[in-house]
TrEMBL record:
Coiled coil: none annotated. It comes from Ferrimicrobium acidiphilum DSM 19497. The keyword Transferase applies. GO terms for biological process: cell adhesion involved in single-species biofilm formation; negative regulation of bacterial-type flagellum-dependent cell motility. One of its GO terms (molecular function) is diguanylate cyclase activity. Its EC number is 2.7.7.65. CDD domains: GGDEF. Transmembrane segments: none annotated. Pfam families: GGDEF. This is Putative diguanylate cyclase YcdT. PROSITE patterns: GGDEF (PS50887).
Length: 317
């Protein structure tokens, strides 16, 4: 292919080592001057990295790799590192492309200089440029995709407890429902008299309790369960395959025993069943929240199931 590095390019590159070194030096000079003339190119870097001297030394570190074949593992690895370095420094691809394009200005300047060493064919230099550019920009895209994925994940996590937040939990439940799925229990619960902890001991102690609750809940959950905090001391436990009343009693009371033994606290809960009580996260939450209200109205330390009048203890005396 016209723009693909080949055997003839490899030969030409190896035969013009002096010329390639001269080309690299000219490119470094032009690129450094461009940065001197417009320091905003790297405006997002810390001050210690905004000097022309730093940029010059940064480029010079690439000399040996550039003078070698682009097919070597070291050359490909170097191009990948360039891509990652630019994305993490918030340098847009256009800056990288623009600075690397100065390679051709350097080539034509040397070509017009009768005292300059012989250069490899321009097409070979273009192929070298394209090889490095493709690797760097592919890596740039990969790094950007990783950052977007990381940001998306953080947007779905409750920063205090590490459980899913409402957005993340609703997305998880919606995904479960969209795929062929078994019935599931939507359990919403909150602590009895949590406000007294904040009033008596302060919010840092309240935060510690919430973090401990989330840790206990994770240890009691199964692999396919999803845990979320909606706000305050209100948590949701999404439990696929858990609909039988006896199994629900065992799960809720088992968690209640652990919570009371370790923290001396109790909770109330409301349970909605998918798809019996709702087919969306919002509908299930509304049904479970109404059941939670009935459990609290019945005296707390209890749980209720949507669509029934029965009230069950979360913790037996």
């Amino acid at each position: 292919m016209l723009w693909q590095w080949g055997i003839e390019d490899e030969k030409a590159w190896n035969l013009h080592v002096e010329g390639i070194n001269a080309l690299f030096s000219e490119w470094v000079r032009l690129a450094t001057k461009a940065v001197e003339d417009d320091a905003s190119l790297f405006g997002d870097l810390s001050l210690e990295f905004q000097t022309a001297d730093w940029f010059h030394s940064h480029l010079e570190a690439y000399r040996l790799t550039f003078c070698a074949s682009p097919e070597t593992p070291a050359s490909r690895d170097s191009a990948r590192r360039v891509g990652f370095a630019h994305i993490y420094a918030h340098v847009p691809p256009s800056v990288y492309v623009g600075l690397y394009n100065l390679m051709f200005s350097g080539y034509h300047a040397l070509e017009a200089d009768p005292q300059a060493p012989d250069l490899p064919p321009l097409l070979t230099v273009r192929r070298r440029w394209l090889s490095d550019m493709q690797t760097a920009l592919d890596t740039y895209a990969s790094a950007l995709s990783g950052l977007v994925s990381s940001w998306s994940s953080l947007a779905s996590i409750d920063p205090l407890t590490g459980t899913l937040n409402r957005r993340g939990l609703w997305q998880h439940i919606t995904s479960d429902i969209a795929s062929p799925s078994s019935p599931a229990a939507f359990i919403v619960w909150d602590l009895d008299h949590f406000k007294t902890i904040n009033d008596r001991h302060g919010h840092p102690e309240g935060d510690r309790v919430l973090q401990q609750l989330a840790a206990l809940e994770r240890r009691q959950s199964r692999v396919n369960d999803a845990l979320g905090r909606l706000g305050g001391d209100e948590f949701v436990w999404w439990a696929p395959g858990l609909l039988d009343r006896v199994a629900l009693c065992e799960r809720i009371q088992g968690f209640a025993r652990v919570l009371y033994r370790q923290e001396g606290m109790t909770f109330s809960a409301g349970v909605a069943r998918y798809p019996l009580d709702g087919t969306t996260a919002d509908h299930l939450y509304a049904a479970a929240d109404a059941a939670l209200y009935r459990a609290k109205h019945a005296g707390r330390r209890r749980w209720c199931m949507a669509g029934t009048e029965a009230v069950y203890p979360t913790l037996r005396s």
